[in-house]
Amino acid sequence: EGITGALADEINAYTSVDIAAGVYTDRWSIEGFFDNVFDETFWLSNSTGGSLQGTFVTFVPRTFGVRLSVKFGSLR
Description:
mainly beta
């Protein structure tokens, strides 16, 4: 559903399903993630700014991957 006729502060509500699971320790973590599972289209923001065309910030597409984090230095 488009928002081209909406004012800058009128964006419809939306739902996005994100899933993440991982293993975490004091020193490192590994996590699998799946964002926007159902590949929903939604608008994060819009602004009319100084032009009549406006500026639209689009949705986050379906994304998946792995995150790995490591803490360096001494643990206190």
